[in-house]
Design goal:
Length: about 325
């Protein structure tokens, strides 16, 4: 990415780019998403525990997780969002104290686990257990065939908790978790089955001063990425929180009038006798950075030979595929000329 980020467009006269960086023969990439990281914080006021409570750990386990770009379309459960739904409903029937809430490992990964530590009066423990049973069935029904190993459980802890969130802080944190945008926001109408914009609440962390919500926002349309960010800004303002954005990278928007795509399609059919697969990726590519350098005024396409187990010690490439794609590239260049 460093080379693309530091490219000076004034050094180039051409406005057509062939990117040989794809990993599947016969697939032509014509778009990629841009993205940005959001970090939202809700300040927490703590108060001392003055009564006798039972300490319970609400845990979510067994979700598949996955890459928040490539696998967001699989509708897998997000442990942070599931925890938010459970705790909001529990709060309507049990007057619990919230000590901490944590979930997820990486901002750009669909979170698999989450933990909420709560304090309840001993006589209300059974009501919490009843809610666990109720929501276990709800989640199992919603995620059947997607996340069959989901486990929602409660554990009684011997830990002595001495401070908890104030009631006002608790409800603001729960509302943020419950209302936070997450998942697919729009689908492309130009490319079948392509996620156009999405957001993933990847990490929730309790600190001494606040609860922090880390999300990855992606879109192949700049204005839709901004729209998701604007939703987050408004939500943060309503709940007296703060928000920061970082690691912004540009998208490569699909161009329905692309001349280079038409050439690649025609030549592929001439050589191989069938149509190539036109695809896009809901993740970042150098093409997004290069497109941004030229304010979108560059015609691009990405293709390549079959490469397997990319970015692992087992990465390898098909030599015969390289030969075919080389011949294909030469034919494309002749057609352009």
């Amino acid at each position: 990415m460093g080379g693309a980020m530091n490219l000076d467009p004034s050094n180039l006269n051409g406005r057509m780019l062939i990117n040989i960086d794809s990993e599947e023969e016969g697939t032509l990439l014509v778009s990629c998403s841009g993205g940005i990281r959001s970090k939202m914080s809700v300040p927490v006021q703590y108060e001392d525990v003055s009564e006798q409570y039972s300490t319970l750990a609400i845990r979510i386990r067994g979700l598949k997780g996955g890459h928040s770009g490539m696998e967001i379309n699989k509708e897998r459960g997000n442990s942070n969002k599931l925890m938010g739904r459970f705790l909001m409903d529990l709060n309507s029937v049990v007057d619990f104290k919230l000590a901490s809430i944590n979930g997820g490992a990486k901002m750009n990964a669909i979170p698999r686990e989450a933990d909420g530590i709560i304090l309840v009066r001993e006589e209300e423990v059974s009501r919490v257990q009843d809610k666990i049973s109720e929501w276990s069935k709800i989640f199992a029904n919603e995620l059947q065939g997607i996340d069959p190993d989901l486990c929602l459980k409660v554990e009684k802890l011997d830990e002595n908790i001495t401070r908890v969130f104030s009631d006002d802080s608790k409800i603001k944190v729960l509302r943020m978790l419950f209302l936070m945008p997450n998942g697919i926001k729009s689908m492309s109408m130009a490319i079948k089955d392509l996620v156009q914009s999405s957001t993933n609440l990847g990490v929730v962390t309790t600190t001494n001063e606040s609860v922090v919500f880390d999300s990855a926002v992606r879109s192949s349309v700049k204005s839709l990425k901004k729209s998701i960010c604007d939703d987050m800004i408004v939500l943060t303002e309503i709940l007296d929180g703060s928000i920061e954005f970082e690691s912004d990278y540009p998208e490569w928007q699909y161009n329905p009038q692309s001349e280079i795509r038409n050439v690649f399609e025609k030549v592929y059919e001439d050589i191989f006798g069938n149509k190539p697969h036109i695809s896009a990726i809901h993740a970042g590519l150098e093409c997004g950075l290069i497109s941004d350098k030229f304010n979108g005024n560059i015609d691009q396409i990405s293709f390549g030979p079959n490469i397997y187990d990319v970015h692992t010690p087992n990465e390898h490439i098909s030599i015969s595929s390289v030969e075919r794609m080389y011949s294909y590239l030469v034919a494309v260049l002749k057609e352009i000329k």
